[in-house]
Predict the structure.
Amino acid sequence: MHKSENSMEKLLTVVIPAYNAEKYIRRNLDALLLSDEKMKMMEILVVDDGGKDATGVITKEYTSRYPSTFFFCHKENGGHGSVINYGIEHATGKYFKVVDADDWLNNDELSDFLDMLQVHDEDLIASDYLCIEDETWKPLRKMGASADASKYGKHGRLSDGFVDQVIKMHSLTIKTAILKEMPDRMDEHCFYVDAEYITYPIPYAETVFYDQRNLYMYRLGRNGQSMDIHSMQRNRGQHLRVMKSLTDFYSRLPELAPPKKHYIERCIAQIVENQFQIDISLGNHPDMRKELRSWDRKLLKDYPEIYHSTRRKSITLLRMTNYWILPIGYLVLRCVKRF
């Protein structure tokens, strides 16, 4: 069990949500091993979320070897959001990063990344990341934190419109104090809370630094991943729950600079776009057109700024045709996704 401290004494807290992760956890933890000096800068919280396998046994090898860096907690299952909430409560590092157990950080970049954190004080650090093929570990593609190469190595302000695209969880490193300050916490017993994690801190954050290191290694292609189309279909209700949590959050926002408010609208619009994908993938169901039209029209009525922040052409076409082309969208998506 990790012991919470009153003062922040580490540079970086890494929170690893681990549920039955014995197949992946050693790869994840080995990637965090650096020099003794660098290890002292990190706090690594491995949170076993009610799993039944050997994740804890493996992790305790690391807590024994590096007792001031690695900490292990086994708790009752509460989902990904509950682990992030636990991490926020117990973190002592100046900065905070979530790394899923089946992913890992790039060991070749991590030491320099820590050096960079020592000389920066921005609220958010946005780093590039690599998508990695499951099993082979082959790099598939690089995901840029910014579409503007000139922004790397520079810092700016959310309120000035410096951030040109939503910073994904894999890119994001954030000041722990901001997470502790914000009143909202992630939904528990629920998938898709990454959208909450990257959105809830924004009213309390201002400065951003763009870092071109490929820090996060994001595994793709694993069966059962929450973003797998079949998983998304099964968990449609949870996705709708997160979308409602985010729109409720939006309705409570204080007055913000227009660029910052628009950034939050884009964060929420992305989960709206994902909800469309789920519903399109179920477009052969006779009631799906009615359900999609119902929640989308409610979105337009209650949150027109979010409604108009969606960017996918498929969504525009569906809306223009009163959703009648949903069966065609289903066939196209089925061909593309091969489900």
Remarks:
- The mean pLDDT is 94.
